[in-house]
Input
Amino acid sequence: MIDTLYDQAREGDTAVAGLYCDFQTQQDQTITRMMGAILKGLVGRGNIPEYLREAFQKEFAGRGLRLPDLMGLLRKAIASLRQVFICIDALDEFLPQDLPVLLRSLKDIVQESPSTRIFLTGRPPVREDIQECFLEAIVIPVSPNKDDINNYLEMRIDRDYRKKAMNDDLRADILRIFQDKMSDM
Amino acid sequence: MPRFLQLYPQRVDNLPRYPYKPLDRFWTFHLHFDNQHFGQTIMAQSSHSVSVHMGDYNTESGNFRDCFNNKFYGSDEDAQIRSWLSPLEPDNRHQTVRTDRVDGIGGWLLETREFREWRGGEGGADNAVLFCSGNPGVGKTYLR
Output
């Protein structure tokens, strides 16, 4: 998704920031770090904008940033762009007690610049948290897609280094078993 | 001639300052390899080093050093600012996802009315959020 939006955004002042939440490194993913990573993503790999350099050198003199500091800087970053996409994967793996604050911060961004688009993924239970903050959030259920799974399996089978063990019957069996299992998901 | 080690540039740190201007056609600069401080003088034809922009031929080695490091590593301060903003490096995870993904997977999402309306930004702030909901392992991360 990040790549798709990024490709579509090549022209013009559009930026895409993508984040992944991960249960295993949950403690490292604090709100400030997440918001900071969004800002870092929006800045991209190009030159550091002057207001950020100044903030680093003077205003905050390199001290750790707090959430209000970051929100102010994010506001500036977003104001300098025509459109902003923020993608966050696996929201259910974000620290549950901090999730409302994260969503609230995203809401603040959207209220400030309504053209901002936010793409979220997660397990069904986080839907409630999201809709508490964003009443009109569009929800798309994702279920295993038969063609996607087949494509993926074909790729993995072709990539398998034990080529000799593979034949058409075995290939067909593998695909069939996965299809059966999938219908249980 | 010193033995030639791997030809990848390490960070250029201690460049001597040259009292003379580099020749017009040639640049002379020292790189040190594997952290050993023996200078390997490389004569590089300027026409072949278009990727490193020097500005002009009068540039002193200090500027060359900054220029070189900026080009290949980003300046130290830029890197500091980036990690000051956040120590998280989502780009690393993104590279892994990108490598593991199969082309075309999840393409159905891009065709949905919901996605297109969201993407087009028609709803303004009210429709700012698109949430893809699914159980573990259904492929949410790999949607395109």
